[in-house]
Amino acid sequence: MQRTFASDNSAPIAPEILQAIVEVNSGDAVSYGHDATTARAIEKLRAIFGADSDALFVFNGTGANVVALSCLVQRHEAVMCPASAHLQTDECGAFERFTGCKILPVPSPDGKLRVSDLKAYSFGERDEHHVRPRVVSVSQSTEYGTLYELDELRELCSFAHAQGWLVHLDGARIANAAAALGVGLRECTRDVGVDVLSFGGTKNGLMLGEAIVFFDAALHRGIAPFARKQAMQLASKMRYVAAQFSALLQDDRWLAYASHANAMAKRLAERVAGIPSLRITRPIQCNAVFATLDRQAIPRIAERYFFYVFDESLPEVRWMTHHATTPQDVDDFAQLIRQVVGAPAG
What we know:
The protein is of the alpha/beta class and 346 residues long. It has helices at 15-23, 36-49, 61-70, 86-89, 94-99, 115-118, 150-162, 174-181, 224-230, 239-249, 253-272, 297-302, 327-341; strands at residues 54-58, 77-82, 102-106, 132-139, 166-171, 196-200, 210-214, 279-280, 288-292, 308-311, 316-320. It is built from 13 helices and 11 strands. β8 and β9 form a beta hairpin. α1 packs across α10, α8 (174-181) crosses α11 (253-272) and α11 (253-272) packs parallel to α13 (327-341).
């Protein structure tokens, strides 16, 4: 099948993950997560994030974000996030519908929040005419492919906690971020002050599945299992989700998959560099390449390789790589781009 550069969601299941599903597909197992496979996967997560953490598996990223955040807010409280956050732009108002709470979108040209962006929300107690900020939600990596450095996250979390707020991290691509930063999963989440993580698996080799990790089980006040069920995110055959996470964490496969995806994005950027009509618009920090090119060229390239136009006004496109993208895939794609725009071979 023709490779696409649309999304890491388009990737096939990593072979080791598929094998893990096959291996647990024997005999019966107690349903709804009360099985040995799920228990082992949770212990692996606790070994990384701390024995006092609590993990729940869900089907998808929207479910992870909604369930996690719903445990942290009351009806008069709000979540602050970048205006470009997936939570705000691509989850169809799921959080608002499920919780009845409000999102406060904060403008950010690079998808990152800074302390200066949040100060306007920190001036004293709000009366009953206004929702009260309660949670800061950030994405790592961001929807623009950018990264928070560890010190940036640490500063943001410290400021949030000083206001009495909690910090949620949408880690749909946390593996790519950790690989790019050269740190472990705990180092770029709990250790910098994050309270709750939506740990992505689907974009990094899994068939489906995400994990919500509360770094202190007291944070969700026992609500999380009920919120997961009400949100229709409780898998009856949980062992098949849990087995994937065990395999992903085994021998740091998460790191190998993400490192490869990141490397393929850098390779693509190198292969298209110097094309006169093409401009890379954002830093290549993880597994995304953003670029502008001639509007007429886009549909001709997309005839062979599907991808998304991120900003129609420029136009700006987004090209994503993943664990199964090969160097030859990248080189063939770059060569097609050069042919379509009339640039000499790279």
